[in-house]
């Protein structure tokens, strides 16, 4: 049972607002649908929550719909080929999520008979499910009174209580506040309402405070400027790393690809040959590091920003008559590139060397 104190406003105004102004999302059971007896599908909730981690709703929607079309049940995803899942995920980023997605589906299928556990602790026992995802699935799919806190909720809570402690140190205090505020009735709708409030009203810049259901209780609005919250620790400047990528093109319009090792950055994804750059060290940037001898010509430099560093790749292209035997990789028609598990940085590299590569690809 949630106890409302002077420090804890009622959740009712927020739920009333959500009933009228909720976003229609392909993975969501709206209040109207729930009133007609529609139940949340734990598979859809889990899939959407994994995809939405550090990714926008607009970016996730087409991926979510394609995944459901190919793998409508968690058992279908469990039985899928790893390479097919990675290829379907390509472009969403944070590729460890895709690897864990597959492992989690397999665990649900083999260890739980295709049925997701309905508690936070049970969900956290699955591969790749941490505190946030477990709380979100427990609340939204099973209506458990779980404290769900993503970036949008952090912003709402930090302003509602004028929490001056900088992030990430403020997270434990924020979660305590969310737990106190979460009602025993409709906790799933409450979690989604908090997310919607942060996404549409309590926005990072120019929040629409006059429309907010918490405006009378918001301490930041009373005491100062809501845009000052959440307080964030000073960002460290991202290091810049360097490397090279090699795009070899045959007369039959095939290019050399290879598969990255399963662990680490971009693990299990497809790439063109590159030098040994990592988040911590630079790789060779000249044509001397090419996978085989050819006339390699510069195609410029591409820049890609990862979470913890910026990568600058020197792009080298070689036009060769026919395929070359290599110990690592395979030759793929340019027209089939969209079907490969190529992360964004590799698509940038290929496009720098072959500008029309993804316009002619079959997809």
Automatic annotation (TrEMBL):
Alphabetically ordered keywords of this record: 4Fe-4S, DNA damage, DNA repair, Glycosidase, Hydrolase, Iron, Iron-sulfur, Metal-binding
Residue span(s) of domain HhH-GPD: 51-200
Enzyme class: hydrolase
Cofactor requirement: [4Fe-4S] cluster
Catalyzed reactions per annotation: Hydrolyzes free adenine bases from 7,8-dihydro-8-oxoguanine:adenine mismatched double-stranded DNA, leaving an apurinic site
Cofactor remark from the record: Binds 1 [4Fe-4S] cluster.
EC number(s) reported in the record: 3.2.2.31
SUPFAM superfamilies: DNA-glycosylase (SSF48150), Nudix (SSF55811)
SMART domains: ENDO3c (SM00478), FES (SM00525)
Task performed by this protein: Adenine glycosylase active on G-A mispairs. MutY also corrects error-prone DNA synthesis past GO lesions which are due to the oxidatively damaged form of guanine: 7,8-dihydro-8-oxoguanine (8-oxo-dGTP).
Family statement: Belongs to the Nth/MutY family.
PANTHER family, sorted: ADENINE DNA GLYCOSYLASE
Protein name (record): Adenine DNA glycosylase
Organism: Rhizobium aouanii
